[in-house]
Write a structure and sequence with these properties.
With 234 residues, this protein is α/β, with parallel strands linked by helices. It is built from nine helices and six strands; from the N terminus they run αααβααβααβαββαβ. Helix 5 packs parallel to helix 7. The chain is globular and about 50 Å long.
Length: 234
């Protein structure tokens, strides 16, 4: 190890004495090779095998609503679980590393599947510019970044955009969710998506209304196809 590398290790260890790296799920100390989430919590994730099933519960959400090639979620989401805590910290407490790290693991799953081998671009569900300014980041874009790392596929964050700053979907029923996002997504440059297989990414899918609206916008590009990947399925 070089002198510079040794100094960086010592400096990092010194910083960790005062600002220790903790698992965002359980609060235990992280080892040096762990980021945001400890290995034990990753192992305990209620993961799915949806990436191996064409007709899985996530893909069936969109039947008769919008043409989707394939869809998958990394784990199942239940209220009160420590994984709800992870998603909450990702969205509202600036724990951006959670999105990237879980995105990497989701991408590693998708890489095992024949369904996602021809993805051309990864596109996160966009926030409205005002909401992103307030939050400081788009959690879906962080997940997309992690997936990109695993799949070696580029992320496109500018072409799909949200035209209206809508209310949160959290406390809305299925109909209200659909009405809240109906026709509010547009694409700036259709040729950028022409003939491409787009992987549309979000943190959690519940009713699928937001993803449905995004997919409709993307499919305005000629010969485009859309598949979906989310961290969690609620």
């Amino acid at each position: 190890m070089s002198i510079k590398s040794t100094i960086l290790v010592w400096l990092n260890d010194f910083i960790n004495l005062f600002y220790p790296n903790l698992c965002q799920a359980c609060g235990n100390y992280l080892f040096k090779n762990e980021i945001a989430i400890c290995t034990r919590c990753l192992y305990d994730l209620p993961t799915t095998d949806f990436y191996l099933q064409k007709n899985n519960p996530v893909s069936m959400l969109f039947w008769g609503r919008v043409k989707i090639e394939y869809a998958a979620s990394y784990f199942t989401f239940s209220k009160g679980s420590k994984f709800q805590k992870l998603i909450h910290k990702l969205k509202y407490h600036n724990q951006q590393g959670i999105g990237v790290e879980l995105g990497k693991h989701l991408g590693a799953q998708l890489k095992k599947s024949d369904f996602f081998k021809d993805i051309d671009l990864i596109v996160p569900v966009p926030l409205h510019a005002e909401k992103q300014r307030i939050r400081g980041y788009n959690q879906a874009a962080l997940v997309a970044k992690g997936i990109s790392y695993s799949l070696n596929v580029p992320v496109e964050v500018n072409n799909l955009y949200r035209t209206v700053h809508t209310q949160s979907q959290t406390r809305k029923n299925k109909l209200e969710r659909w009405q809240n996002v109906d026709n509010i997504f547009k694409i700036k440059n259709a040729p950028q998506f022409t003939g491409k297989h787009i992987l549309l990414v979000d943190d959690v899918v519940t009713t699928g209304s937001t993803l449905e609206a995004c997919a409709h916008a993307i499919l305005q590009a000629e010969d485009s196809r859309v598949s979906i990947a989310t961290l969690a399925y609620a």
